[in-house]
Amino acid sequence: MASESYDFLLKFLIIGSAGTGKSCLLHQFIENKFKQDSSHTIGVEFGSKVINCSNKTVKLQIWDTAGQERFRSVTKSYYRGAAGALLVYDISNRDSYNALGAWLTDARTLASPQIVIILIGNKKDLESEREVTFLEASRFAQENELMFLETSALSGENVEEAFLRCSKNILTRIESGELNPDRVGSGIQYGDGTIRKLSSNKPEVSSSDGNCGC
Ligand SMILES: Nc1nc2c(ncn2[C@@H]2O[C@H](COP(=O)(O)OP(=O)(O)OP(=O)(O)O)[C@@H](O)[C@H]2O)c(=O)[nH]1
Ligand SMILES: [Mg+2]
């Protein structure tokens, strides 16, 4: 199977206040290393990766948006048709946590009301500078029907897990019929793999990069 074959293609967004570590999270996920000297994103950056999730090969197309206010009108135009999002705050910066409500409203109104969002408390390694407890953030997540993880783009802790959990949740919703990939703006596309599997009815063994074994 060619490395570009996949069962599903999912469009993802990374959103949240400036300096929370969004670009570092994307870099850690794709390159498996910490991005040294990361500077503010201008507009949007893009990355993609093929993962194995729930026995499916899934290609993620990830739009890493700028958190700075001056880019808001540009970044908003990328929200449309996203299937999943990482909503990021910095556990050592309360302002970034306080801004979550506004980011959430934007995501649900501009992307899709059905967008699957995982709340990410990044910079977990900065325990001595923590300003937001795990408990209060998990309550916020529960109240707003978000998944939740604390991560460190520096150490890599939970970074892959964040993308996997979000993808897995989307696949489960596709299977249950709650999400319809055929809906315009769903942020989900079928790939070659799905078409081939439907026609051959044979289980396929994938050999994609980034086998995450979830
Ligand atoms: N200690 C620690 N520092 C981090 C972590 N992730 C990012 N940083 C630092 O935080 C700063 C901002 O990281 P970026 O990834 O550029 O932040 P961003 O959210 O993309 O910012 P914008 O593009 O302006 O929205 C950089 O100095 C990073 O080195 C982390 O997990 N731990
Ligand atoms: Mg950035």
Automatic annotation (TrEMBL):
<dbReference type="InterPro" id="IPR001806">
    <property type="entry name" value="Small_GTPase"/>
</dbReference>
<dbReference type="GO" id="GO:0055037">
    <property type="term" value="C:recycling endosome"/>
</dbReference>
<keyword id="KW-0488">Methylation</keyword>
<dbReference type="GO" id="GO:0010008">
    <property type="term" value="C:endosome membrane"/>
</dbReference>
<dbReference type="GO" id="GO:0005769">
    <property type="term" value="C:early endosome"/>
</dbReference>
<dbReference type="InterPro" id="IPR005225">
    <property type="entry name" value="Small_GTP-bd"/>
</dbReference>
<dbReference type="GO" id="GO:0030100">
    <property type="term" value="P:regulation of endocytosis"/>
</dbReference>
<dbReference type="InterPro" id="IPR050209">
    <property type="entry name" value="Rab_GTPases_membrane_traffic"/>
</dbReference>
<keyword id="KW-0636">Prenylation</keyword>
<keyword id="KW-0449">Lipoprotein</keyword>
<keyword id="KW-0472">Membrane</keyword>
<dbReference type="GO" id="GO:0003925">
    <property type="term" value="F:G protein activity"/>
</dbReference>
<dbReference type="InterPro" id="IPR041819">
    <property type="entry name" value="Rab4"/>
</dbReference>
<dbReference type="GO" id="GO:0016192">
    <property type="term" value="P:vesicle-mediated transport"/>
</dbReference>
<keyword id="KW-0342">GTP-binding</keyword>
<keyword id="KW-0479">Metal-binding</keyword>
<keyword id="KW-0653">Protein transport</keyword>
<dbReference type="InterPro" id="IPR027417">
    <property type="entry name" value="P-loop_NTPase"/>
</dbReference>
<keyword id="KW-0547">Nucleotide-binding</keyword>
<dbReference type="GO" id="GO:0003924">
    <property type="term" value="F:GTPase activity"/>
</dbReference>
<keyword id="KW-0460">Magnesium</keyword>
<protein>
    <recommendedName>
        <fullName>small monomeric GTPase</fullName>
        <ecNumber>3.6.5.2</ecNumber>
    </recommendedName>
</protein>
<comment type="similarity">
    <text>Belongs to the small GTPase superfamily. Rab family.</text>
</comment>
<keyword id="KW-0967">Endosome</keyword>
<keyword id="KW-0813">Transport</keyword>
<keyword id="KW-0378">Hydrolase</keyword>
<dbReference type="Pfam" id="PF00071">
    <property type="entry name" value="Ras"/>
</dbReference>
<dbReference type="GO" id="GO:0046872">
    <property type="term" value="F:metal ion binding"/>
</dbReference>
<dbReference type="GO" id="GO:0015031">
    <property type="term" value="P:protein transport"/>
</dbReference>
<dbReference type="GO" id="GO:0032482">
    <property type="term" value="P:Rab protein signal transduction"/>
</dbReference>
<dbReference type="GO" id="GO:0005525">
    <property type="term" value="F:GTP binding"/>
</dbReference>
